[in-house]
Amino acid sequence: MDIVVTLWNTTGFQALSLGMLLMIGVGLLLIFLAIRYQFEPLLLLPIGFGAVLTNIPLAGLSEPGGLLYYLYQAGVSTGVFPLLIFLGVGALTDFGALLSNPRVLLLGAAAQFGIFATLLGAIALNWVPGLEFSLQQAAAIAIIGGADGPTAIYLSSQIAPELLGAIAVAAYSYMALVPIIQPPVMRLLTTKKEREIRMVELKPVSKRARILFPLMVVLLTALLLPTAAPLIGMFCFGNLMRESGVVERLNNTAQNALINIVTIFLGLSVGAQLSAGQFLTVQTLGILVLGAVAFVIGTAAGVLMAKLMNKLGRTAINPLIGAAGVSAVPMAARVVNKEGLRADPHNFLLMHAMGPNVAGVLGSAVAAGVLLALVG
Q: What is the annotated localization of this protein (predicted)?
């Protein structure tokens, strides 16, 4: 009997709490959404699996000495993993649509309004009983509005690591829900006539311009806003490798092997933060609500900016492409294209929408730098 009791005490079942069971359920739900509905599967699947592992009692995977603990300390708390992801994203990004029509940079900037509006909303929630966010936590939550997972993880790891798990899940969940969240907002703020606007064909961009652009961006941004230099620097370095055409092996590595390996480790590390004690709080509910609000405001701001540019400019812009200003690349651009085809089956907006879409990536990185400078 003593042997049976000893064996029972060494199992996880005897230490399994209701909170742990619920979080294992959350992890399994994320895995289900990744596989069944393909909601951001590259991140939600490893995040979900990491959540399952970290809530297994007595395993110690997220405690000092455990694998997930060291992955988090080495790559997430230091900010290395998100920066390496940005390097790979830069290598995958084509700035041709943005350089061909530089005006759409304003749409990417306008969409970041969701970040700063959500910052004020997070602070305002302190009036709600049971909810209390510090300025650092509010800033980390606000970055969800940028629709950029690596940026959200990087900023929250620097200024509010205790909210990292909830912020990462909210950011990637809402990014996966872009095709559901954005279209109603886009239709509400535009008329059918506006959605049918056909834009002027994009002009070719020279190789010299493509090479000079990342160099100019990194120098200008780093000098004006040094706190944004890590994100912008890695992003622009990846893009320079792509456009230079002389380091194809490095470019291929950044686009494929490197970004894939880091994505696995990043997902597991973030999932390790989804323990019952950290996730099952009133704050998590507030983060999820604010994340949805941030996406809606960012989408609306981009569309309204495009409408304003139509009033002030001579060349017509389809207001739908303003919704692509959030940096969910390329999903937001695809949603814009789908809505454009719904209004006019012959109106293809994908390449036009990629301009504000990649501008949104730069915009969210700059916004993160601003928040880090103000509250970090």
A: Cell membrane
